[in-house]
Amino acid sequence: MNLRNIDLNLLVIFDALMTEKTITRAARVMGVTPSAVSHALQRLRKTFDDPLFERGPGTMAPTQRAQELLPFVRNALLSLHQGIALYREFVPATSRRSFRIRQSDFLSDCLLPRLCARVRAEAPSVTLVVDQLPADDEDTPGPGDIELRVGARIASGTGLKRKRLWRDPFAVAMRPGHLAATGTLSLEQFMELTFLDVASAILDRRSLDEVLRSKGLVRRTAVTIPTLSGVVAIVAHTDLCVVLPRRWVSLYSGPSELATALLPVDGIEYAIDMIWQVHDERDAGHRWLRRLIEEEFDVLYSPPAAQHQQRRIGHPPSRLDVVPPLAA
């Protein structure tokens, strides 16, 4: 095969299809139409004389040939991306770059409004593509991507960097009139509660349940909902309890809407990690976006007095700025 006959854009689309597993999502990430991606896929199949992807229920499964090609394609694209980034000055005010962030459901309503405000103010022509984290915890961010994970576990030799942005104890939240709303809970009292669970919330729930199982205990979950959007209303009007990061409860419930008690299980905390590829370390645009994420986390989770000072020096105000800390 003569390399001069291969369009580099086809390899970029191949990488997007391998990551997204659907033509529609790949087109959204690439900023092109689905028909353009479909046409490129036909050219890829002709170039490599292989179907490359086979349709399945709601997704496209890569063939063996596609899986064999992937590491070579990604290494080539990564080298090219790295070489260009080293010599490209990043000017936020004029840049037209696109960045992708993957995050958990917990951050959609708190971090994103602040981050979007900063990006729009500093880089109005930059595009942010925000996706949910993949179901597979072992999936790694692609070149240029940033992932915000809860308690990320990064093995050595993976070519990834991690920075811990925040850690917070878990709280057991319930309506104020709940029989357990006494401010403190013993493990025995905790196990008598009935819980609400959130399917899309990437908590360290597994660690909690593993610790309980090691003690021969299993907590009772009566209701599971798909997202966090209904948590406060459900808990405030039922006898259900929910395990959430303490700061999340203070951000999203009124001063007397929910009662809380610290989780009576040691060694479990809510920690948010930012993950990216080592090869993106020197990319000026990537560094800029990572800095914005760190700064907005600092403002979002800092004490109210510090938030007031930060607003005075130019951070965009938000209803999230004035949040009283939860009592321990």
CATH superfamily of the domain at 3-86: Winged helix-like DNA-binding domain superfamily/Winged helix DNA-binding domain
> Could you give a short account of the major beta sheet?
7 strands, mixed
List the uncertain runs: 305-328
**Derived structural class:** alpha/beta
The total of helices stands at 11
CATH class of the domain at 3-86: Mainly Alpha
Mean pLDDT across every amino acid position: 82
Instruction: Give a count of the beta strands, DSSP E runs of length 2 or more.
Output: 11
| Cα gyration radius (Å) | 23 Å
CATH fold category name of the domain at 3-86: Arc Repressor Mutant, subunit A
The dominant shape is elongated
Pattern of helices and strands: HHHEEHEHEEEHEHEHEHEEHH
Straight-line N-to-C gap: 66 Å
CATH architecture of the domain at 3-86: Orthogonal Bundle
Helix content: 25-40%
Oligomer: single chain
Strand content: 15-25%
Task: Give the structure's gist in a few sentences.
The chain is an alpha/beta fold. Helix content is 38%, strand content 21%. α5 (111-122) links the parallel β3 (98-103) and β4 (127-132).
